[in-house]
Amino acid sequence: MARTQVQDINQSLYDFVMPEVGAERYADGLTPDIVRAISKKKHEPAWMLEMRLQALELYQSMEMAPNWGASIEGLNMDHISTYVAPNAKRTNSWDDVPDEIKETFERLGIPEAERETLAGVGAQYDSEIVYHNMRESVADQGVIYTTIEDALTDPELEPIVHKYFGKLLPMIEHKFSALHYAVWSGSSFVYVPAGVTLPFPLQSYFRLNAQGAGQFEHTLIIVEEGGNLHFIEGCSAPKYNVANLHAGAVEIFVGDGAHMRYSTIENWSKNMFNLNTKRSTVGKDAHMEWVSGSFGSHVSYLYPSTILAGDNSDCEFTGITFAGATQDLDTGCKVTMNGKNTNASINTKSISKDGGINTFRSSVIIGPHAENARASVSCQSLMLDDMSRSDTIPAMDVRCASASVGHEATIGRISDDTVFYLMSRGCSEGEARTMVVNGFANPISKELPMEYAVEMNNLIKLEMEGAIG
Amino acid sequence: MADTMKLSHINTPPAQTWNYLHINDVSFDVPVAEEHGAAFNRLPRIFDGIECGLGDEACGWIVASSAEARYIEVPAHTRRDEPIVIDIVAENGTVADTGVCVREGAEATIVVAVSATLARDALSAALTRVLVERNAVLHVVEIVAAGGAYRHIEGLGIDAAAGARVDVSQYFLGGARVAAGMAANLAGDGATFELACRYLVGAGELLDINHVVRARGRDTREDMIVSGMLSDGASKTLRETIDLIHGAKGSQGNEAETVLLAGENIRNKTLPVILCDEDDVAGNHGATIGAISPEQLAYLSDRGLGPDEAAALFMRSIFDDALIHAPEPVSAAAVALRAETVLGAEVSRDSLETLDIDFFKEV
Fold first, then answer.
1. What ipTM was predicted for this assembly?
2. Is the pTM here over 0.90, yes or no?
């Protein structure tokens, strides 16, 4: 079948720059003074500063594993500012948000989504949260949705933060988790009391506007026994010619019998190094669900991790990754099953196009006491041209004889017969291929909230523009 | 006592994953290699470029440690009926370095048989590198049946030209610590590769496998089926890589593994990798890891077999399969000897009689 040149992608919906008027920007690079300055600005307790400095020391002493996948050679911390604060105070009214920042979030559809479908919203712009609000009816049930910075100054919440912060994701996890703990800024702190179900999701949206900067937000979620929460994370940035860095961290504690769903649509710009770390621990009879769409970034290392600690707990991971030109996305997930009768289901899809590189990487560990644990891993990859690449690297480590693991992976292309069939029924070649890709992604997009499913379909459409491959 | 050294990175797969999983390689303590062979005992230099799955470190050690290299050539358009046998007696600490060239249109069978009669701690190794020319046919049977405290390093490298057909049968039936690397380079268009690997890992044993198949030519076909059983205290790692290299249009690769977990304190690690740098290809992987299902147990129970007897039945099936595929007396003897230790003399004898292994009667 004849092929035509693939065109550039239209990302104008996300790729717009606002001026950094009055922003406070710390010097590029990483020094103890910068770390101290961040901590001082946030009026943190001494233990947090101590933790930051310890993390900095660790970061500087740790090496990256030489045998890892995508290269991060283009990332030079000496040219990254770890803290850029917009000229705005945190508020719970969009009217008080500076115009250019408000316009950014309006263009991204956040206030509208808040009015229609969300129980609360946090909006981070560069290194600081600029807007935070939650419906009164939700707050009345005892739900706390605030920033860690604010929680640290609240005598009632500070001990909770101290108890949980950094406990699930230790700073020693890897070099960039150490970096995160040294310079984290901007955050979400969610506490769902026992037995409380939120009728609508909470959402945090992260926008990195500054050039050559890093974003290091920390999300800490605690869902007590029998609670139920859907949390949505969205992120985007305009494209620059220099590297930007995102090294956030997410820690989720899911109590016994609780239910947690964490949805992410990641659409960072293609100069972004997205080295994010996420982990949840799941109690007895509890359920954890990750839904993940990765479309942006130059390089991604992203593997949400779940520890099924309690008996009869289960988790699902549903993810889609779309790698286009200049992208090398190393994504996947990790599950550690320690409880008895635990269940894990992993279902991922990836699409590679225009020379994009996708790597699906997973690990399923079934511990020696995880009797009757069940895990299934399914990974499907679609190649849209012969310039792209797709690798699958799933690891399984089973230490319990009564466990059962099933795994399947397939890599292939859209068959010419399918395209021909659709074209014979009136579709153009581009429409036919977009239709097949949408169908391929549909099992994932239907797991997303409606507006995100629409956004994902739009993203696929944007990515497929001109992709008559 | 000879000085020892550590081979730290044996069986490293082409694409690696988290180091904390300890799945990226395996290590072996080995005696420091003594230079045995003179230059004329080395294989032709063309064999140096053949990848064997074990990695350069282990291959280099085997080449340096073997007393002499053995080179066999199968002339073009001939069929060699007598298998090329590489007989490794584990207690002798044999280290074999063999090169085979199967010329255009020829057909040959290679047998590597590792056996042990005494219960001793020893280390043996076999490295077999094969050039399979255009339209040639190669059959390989590898049987590692040492058991006891024996350690063995097994390497197989195959370079297949256009239209070449290769099938490999591997049986890993015992050994305290066994590392097996195998790499096939399907360089020519239309080359095919089939692998059937079966294993039985017993108490306290470690089996570490690395299979790599690289599809370079167009319209190649690679199928790998691995199945096995782990009993009490067994550890097994399987890495399987299908590498669909840019330009290998029309190629298809399939890999499948079935693992039966039949004991306590087992450790089963699997890393099934598909690397795909081409769009007009298909790569598939499937794995099933688990115990004997309750349905299977109920079925067997109805016929008077308890769980232990059911496990023994699965175990025997692996030995029977190895006996059926052992093409000559040395390999059949290695299997039978090991079956006698694992299944008992009576069951082993019954297998031989049932399968009517003729040539074994002559041994």
1. 0.93
2. yes
